[in-house]
Write a structure and sequence with these properties.
Elements (H helix, E strand, L loop, with lengths): L1 E2 L17 H9 L1 E7 L4 H10 L32 H7 L3 E7 L25 E5 L13 E2 L2 E2 L11 H19 L5 E6 L11 H6 L7 H16 L27 H34 L8 E5 L15 H7 L3 H6 L15 H7 L12 H4 E7 L9 E3 L3 E2 L3 H9 L6 E2 L2 E2 L9 H5 L9 E6 L2 E6 L2 E4 L14 E4 L15 H17 L11 H4 L12 E4 L7 H5 L5 E12 L4 E8 L2 E8 L2 E7 L5 E8 L2 E12 L3 E8 L2 E10 L10 E3 L9 H7 L7 E12 L4 H13 L3
Helix pairs in contact: 4-7, 6-10
Length: 723
Amino acid sequence: MLVDDLGWSDMGCFGGEIDTPNLDAIAGRGLRYTNFHVAAMCSPTRAALLTGLNPHQVGMGSVAQSDPGFAGYTSELATAAPTIAETLRDAGWFTAMVGKWHLCKDSDEHAAGPQYSWPCQRGFDRFYGFLGPFTNLHHPSELVRDNTPIDVDSYPAGYYLTDDLTDQAISMIRSVKAADPEKPFFLYFAHGAVHAPLHAKPSDIAKYMDAYRDGWDVIRQRRYERQQTLGVLPDGADLPPRNSEPGDEVIAWADLSADERELFARHMAVYAAMVDNIDQNVGRLFDALRDLGELDNTIFFFCSDNGASREGEAAGTTAYYVHLLQGDDVESDLRRLDLIGGPQTTPHYPRGWAMASGTPWRLYKINMHAGGHTSPLLVHWPNGGLDGGAIRRQWTYVTDVVPTLLELLGVDRPSQRHGLESPPLAGESFVATLHDPEATHGHVVQYAEMNGHRGFYLDGLEIVTNHRPLTPFGDHEWELYDLRTDPTELHDLAAERPDDVAALAEMWEAAARSNQVYPLEEGSSIRFLSRPGWVDAFRAPVTIARGTPTLERWRSVQLVWFRSFVVEIDLVHRTGDQGYLIAHGDQGSGYGVYVLDDHLTFVHNDGRGTMTTFDAGRVESATAVSLHMDAQAGRRWHASLQVDGVARPGHVDVAMLFGIAPFEGIDVGIDRRSPISWSIFEQFGPFAYTGTLHRVRYVPGEPGPDSPDRLIEVIRQMGARFE
């Protein structure tokens, strides 16, 4: 079981105050590995977890969003690399997956996309979940069953994704065990929680409403003290001071305003509620396995895909989809305080809570310091003769999981996949450590890199960099730590031991060359902006008939990204007809056109709680409506409407939506799933149009003045200075 963005100290058995009785009981019956490490980002960790190979080696050197044309960053698993699901399925196992995939490029996630990097093509008999980086937990933007997106107009009241995933996992196991009781099963459960948007059930949030008013400094100290009592910390693990690195710093809780403290405590209450709910669902899954008589012989691994996330930055946000590009807005967040955690916001907590979540380690997800890649690991196997409640301190890495499982199961890894020779495993089995706390583990050398941050581990010595964007790479960046005496990285020895730094840096360089690490992300983001030429075909005009399932997010964004566009709506409208003509987006941000009480209305949701509408007047009959979104300087759109070719009164300038927004795709004649306008949703639900709507045609126009398409060469030259 893999949890997204879970911090090392969040569970009770690792020092946290969050109520996790099921996971704590699992730790009490099994093992806690306290020196387990992952790749500091979700997609790379997932690739390494499923293949036993280093992330760049299999094309997953960073988050799976794009394909800039470099072998280490293809955003899909290498063809020659068999997954453990493929290996076990070929050996006669039933293989199932629920949850977050995020191992194919975003441009392959739509209905016409090649599916060779989807779960069922990478070894899973069954899949239920989502393909992308995250989703709304109350109203998922898209769910896929096996190879088919599920048509959903609206979710039932009280729907929550973590509960649904657990239901699906239990159903899959029950089904196969009823059909063939002797068939072994492999379940890869990859939670959407606790990644943003931070969504939780009201009853779970209520439990923690007053739990975090003392703030992150106090909570962090309490967790550290509990960790000492539990014995999960290594010798010499002093608690570092509050993070203070430029751009990573955390303000003292006492220096916040009263409003900020109230807001930030609410953010953490929602996060805690999400962790609590995961624990509840782990209990449900274990109960189901126990009822089937399978629990005692099931090998269960539980870990996180990276350290706690700092993506909320200094002040957090209630608008995750637009926050990283538009900055903090505490005032608007305060106005929505009571909505945080529910379906009307897309929150993320401030990075001060990420610091506390990662206690006692420094920094956060993406960083090469320990807070970025140190993950809790639980191993539970009642029939395995494990020393219940024991702790293992051997240094282990995510690539070690595949060889460990294969050894335990007695299954051989194939030497080829699709006629290509399989690369040798990068990890090593740690089976010996399961039964012997003093057993040595042979994996003592490991390179790491994430978005320009670099790291190298050699048997207790470590060099790391905290690379600042658009600054020179070089040996001057390296910090050196002896983790045997300084596990929390407090004493940089680089100036005292330059020969060790040089030797380890040379080893990092050799590993980087052999694992396809280059080019490094220098901070210009050109790697994420650069796309292959075939993407241009998705920026051509497209016609969408009514009745078409929601056009997938990435496909929809190509039509509007940083550009002007026109939406031509072919319909037969009569007095009394009402409903959405088009809807693109959700509560996280979006825009749409609807008719209500015979008035044509444009609506825009900026994601921060500001709804902008204009009334284009009465429409008693019409055969054509068109929405004109003209790109302006300052990342704005000028919105206007025409009916039967005649301009209507009313127009407005609104914030351009870009990046990962709108996060839900285009609907024709309805607003499915998470709504753009909550007030309309409360009155009418998805608000399907009652008249005759034949089709809409999206006609992308010229890129706007601020479009990266106009600046890409400038951006490329900026980055080239630091390549």
